[in-house]
Amino acid sequence: MFSRRLSTLQLISWCLMLQVSDAFVSPITTSKQHALVSKALLAKESTNDDNNNNNNNDYVSDRRSILRNVAIAGMGVTFSPLTTTPTSAIAASTPGGRIQFGGEDIMTPKEHGTTSLPVQENLRYDVSRKLADRICCYNRHFAEFGGYFESTPFEETMRNLVSSNNGPVTFYDSVTGKPLFVAPINRSVEQFITESEVHGWPSFRDDEVVWDNVRVLRNSGETVSVDGTHLGHNLPDKKGNRYCINLVSVAGNPVTAS
Predict the structure, then answer these.
(1) What are the sequence ranges of the domains in the chain?
(2) pTM assigned to the model
């Protein structure tokens, strides 16, 4: 009888959690559950796409709708002990340090949405430039569809680069080309990929953030570049801050100073 009462209490607790989930932004999902996530459109699009004629609307979702469907997706997932990745291959800027907060003024309207320029041509990982421009420059709340990165060569590219470089990979702003993240650090590439698959988006930790170029808005957790590029959101868990980032926002190429 005691166990049945306990089970009932647990069920009630989970129901209450789901009722309040809309108050939070938490894209937690698994690859098998991506199909369950409600699709939300930023704007009506034509059926033409700059990459393989795919409709970008299929890859946009409202982060607030996700937790209701997949609230317990991340439970039961275990990770092996962290393994230290050599930092000798880290380029451009040094990542790590304390979280850096920014104000809403970073995201004020500019010449191209919240940024001064559109996204770069020839983005990495074969991501859609049209989708990237919408997410990076004309958006504050929406995200590429959960699991989008798994439809790209991202995972294979990560493994190959980490292996060939004997170190982590630098991720660049899709608009400015500035370094934003360096990963994996203090974990293996498989641990980085697995965590990203569990949540549906590339997921970075404090040690992997280039704080010279990244800010978190205190009231919303929105994670942005100092130049106004929307990147994603900070969604802390028991391990600490977790930066849930759109791949299209960090698929840029480095720009050398002239």
Answers:
(1) 101-128+148-249
(2) 0.70
